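[recover] target loaded
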């Protein structure tokens, strides 16, 4: 299945135009369509008895949100015409939380293109950011695009593989891009930081031969690469991806979708927040 319908997150961040160009490029390859979504945030209605003044403030706030939406639509249109003039596109404005809106609309898309969440510099995060919420709730693959990346070269793709359900789902969802890649490397990481992991290097050639065979039947030739170290798995995977100079990292996204609580796994958070290459994730 090709990516025929791509939903892209619109916002005021510096990487928005890059993200739109990235989605437009993917849609152009598959003769697809791009939907740009502007979420204005939840609009609070004045409670009964608050008075006329509260109603006027609420109406003013609503008009400001709609004006912002109109500006976003114009910027989206300019970015699409600049990146891919022949690609069809639609703009939608939803007066609700960005994560909720993208997750709901993303269920009718083949791929959701999102901004990479900001790093936290070691500080704990208690509330899920937009990308994390969408990953856990949309039921569709997400592609996180760092600022400055406007198209997917797709020369070298790495698959973060641990044999889990989420990783298998990510491989299946990424198949259109895996078939385009000149090189595909399956990376298995083993961390001595986890006491439950043995200190022997992972047997990536033996344990994951089934994945290699499956991909080769799909016409995707793969190489196997094992990494081990004292850092956590997420950091090992990122170091391997940078060393291999990959253009795209494919990985399973782990966690539990419970309201807005942050329950993504540590490896998932590391890849989402600190990868400097595009990352395709499925949950």
């Amino acid at each position: 299945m090709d990516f025929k319908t791509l939903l892209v997150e619109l916002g005021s961040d510096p990487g928005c135009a890059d993200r739109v160009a990235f989605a437009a490029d993917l849609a152009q390859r598959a003769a697809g369509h791009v939907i740009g979504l502007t979420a204005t945030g939840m609009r609070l209605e004045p409670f009964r008895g608050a008075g006329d003044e509260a109603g006027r403030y609420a109406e003013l706030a609503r008009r400001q949100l709609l004006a912002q939406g109109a500006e976003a639509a114009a910027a989206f249109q300019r970015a699409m015409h600049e990146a891919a003039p022949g690609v069809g596109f639609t703009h939608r404005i939803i007066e609700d939380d960005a994560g909720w809106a993208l997750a709901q609309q993303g269920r009718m898309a083949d791929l959701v293109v999102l901004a990479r969440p900001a790093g936290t510099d070691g500080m704990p995060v208690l509330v899920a950011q937009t990308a994390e919420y969408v990953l856990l709730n949309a039921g569709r693959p997400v592609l996180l695009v760092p600022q400055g990346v406007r198209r997917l070269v797709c020369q070298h793709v790495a698959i973060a593989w641990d044999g889990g359900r989420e990783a298998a789902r990510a491989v299946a969802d990424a198949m259109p891009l895996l078939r385009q890649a000149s090189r595909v490397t399956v990376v298995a990481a083993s961390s001595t930081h986890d006491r439950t992991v043995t200190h022997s290097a992972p047997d990536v050639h033996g344990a994951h031969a089934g994945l290699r065979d499956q991909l080769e039947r799909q016409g995707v030739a793969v190489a196997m690469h094992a990494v081990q170290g004292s850092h956590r798995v997420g950091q090992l995977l990122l170091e391997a991806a940078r060393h291999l100079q990959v253009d795209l990292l494919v990985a399973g996204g782990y966690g539990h979708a419970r309201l807005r609580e942050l329950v993504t796994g540590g490896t998932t958070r590391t890849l989402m927040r600190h990868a400097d290459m595009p990352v395709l994730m499925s949950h």
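[recover] notes: The domain at 1-147 is CATH 3.40.50.620 (Rossmann fold).
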